[in-house]
Structures are given as structure tokens and as C-alpha cells.
Amino acid sequence: MPLHFNALELVILLVIVLVLFGAGRVTRLGGELGAGIREFRKGLNGGDDVNAPVTPAESTTNTPSAPINDASNKPL
Asked: Helices 23-44 and 7-21: crossing angle, nearest 10°?
């Protein structure tokens, strides 16, 4: 048997939860619940966060930062 709540019943339920636990605890529990859901999604996606900001690569060129000292660089 599915549960059907209308808006008034949800408001009454939220007021009862707020009175029982207090505003500070309810906000902390909500934040912890959100963090848990994010960790769960991250685990489902294999560690890839779809909402993570995309950062550009540091460098796309293949130039060395220092000259290489080997036999191929010596003049003939």
C-alpha cells in the first residue's frame, strides 16, 4: 500500500521534526545526508564526479624543461 502525503501533512511532519530535534541538529543532519549521497554517487560512478569542475591540462606541448645531455645532441 503506497503512502500518499499532501502538502499540509508534509508541513506538519516537518514542524514535528523541527520541534523534536531543533534547528541546529536538523541542518547538520541534512548536510551529513547530502554528503553521504554525494559519496554514494561517487562510488557508483567509479570515483568520477559528474559535477566536478573541469580543469585544463597543465601543458599540451612536449617541450622539455631542461636540455637533454646525451650523444644525439652533440654536433658532428
From this structure: 110
CA atoms within 13 A on the CB side of 23: 0
In whole angstroms, what is the distance from residue 35 CA to residue 37 CA?
5
The torsion of the CA quartet 63, 68, 70, 75, rounded to 10 degrees, works out to 80
The CA distances from residue 57 to 46, 49, 62, in Å, are 22, 18, 13
pLDDT in tens, 26-35: 889 899 999 9
Residues near 48 by beta carbon (within 8 Å), at least 6 away in sequence: 42
For the entire predicted model, the pTM comes to 0.43
